[in-house]
Amino acid sequence: MARITTIETQKRNPERVNIRLDGRHGFGLAAIVAAGLRVGQELDQRQIDVLESEDAIESAYQRALRFLSVRTRSEAEISGHLLRHKTPGTVVERTIERLRQSQLADDNKFAQAWVENRSSFRPRSRRALAWELNRKGVPAEAIESATTGLDDTELAFQAGLKQARRLHGYSWLDFRRRLYAYLFRRGFSAGVIGPVVARVWSETTAEQIPTENEDAS
After folding, report:
1. Tens digit of pLDDT for each residue in 148-190?
2. Are residues 159 and 210 in the same domain?
3. Both 160 and 185 in a single domain?
4. From the CB of residue 123, how many other CB atoms can be counted at a distance below 10 Å?
């Protein structure tokens, strides 16, 4: 058995404390984990092991929250981030489960939000969206659910309208070439792109598409 002689807040991190046992430095804990401890309390090795295990879980959870503070993440992204910081696999699993319970980790919601954000600000094809989500480790079922019902023609048209602002004043030939390449890079097929480019030209320039003879001249 060892007796707690002091509980001191760490100078560099006020959210953690140092526990001294029998006058010697023992170990550090998250303040929330150490909340039930008191000076004079005796701890055996089993209790110390439990406290250190709880501390590892709390530290991983706080690291995950900081990672999520930038933007939402897939569960695979969170797991990868924790593993890169040498978090044990069992602790990663418990952290992900805790985040799920707090509704801070949900691949279905992540996939849906990703698709909605892309469709609003950077439209791309359903295939491209699925590829992006797959790279982020989102399960196939969540990807299918989030992308089902997407219309590539409408997505391409919205993307084309946004890009058309940058092509103001271009001739039809240059407009068609540049917009075609732009939409192709975003994963749309040739069968979708052709009619969309013509539609965007008509709706943004109010001009007829030149005939082949006019193009040549």
Report:
1. 999 999 999 999 999 999 999 899 999 999 999 999 999 999 9
2. yes
3. yes
4. 24
| CA 70/CA 211 separation, integer angstroms | 51
Residues spanned by the domain of 93:
57-105
Predicted structure pTM score = 0.79
Angle at 209 between CA 204 and CA 210, to 5 degrees: 140
Question: Of 179, 140, 137, 133, which Cα lies nearest the Cα of 160?
Answer: 179
Residue type, 26: G
> Would you state the structure tokens that stand for residue 173, as one six-digit string?
């030939």
Q: Are residues 195 and 139 in the same domain?
A: no
Same domain assignment for residues 161 and 140: no
The answer to whether residue 163 is domain-embedded is yes
In this structure, the answer to whether residues 79 and 99 fall within a common structural domain is yes
Domain end, chosen from 119, 147, 175, is at 147
Alpha helices in 171-210 (DSSP H): 172-185, 190-205
Number of domains the chain contains: 4
* Cβ neighbours around 143 below 10 Å, total: 23
Tell me, what amino acid is at 118?
R
Q: Cα(79)–Cα(86) distance, rounded to whole angstroms?
A: 11
How do residues 127-141 score in pLDDT, each as one tens digit?
999 999 999 999 999
Looking at the structure, tell me whether residues 39 and 93 fall in a common domain. Answer: no
Secondary element (H or E) of residue 28: strand 24-30
Strands 24-30 and 16-21: antiparallel
Mean pLDDT over 46-70 rounds to 93
Count the residues in the chain: 217
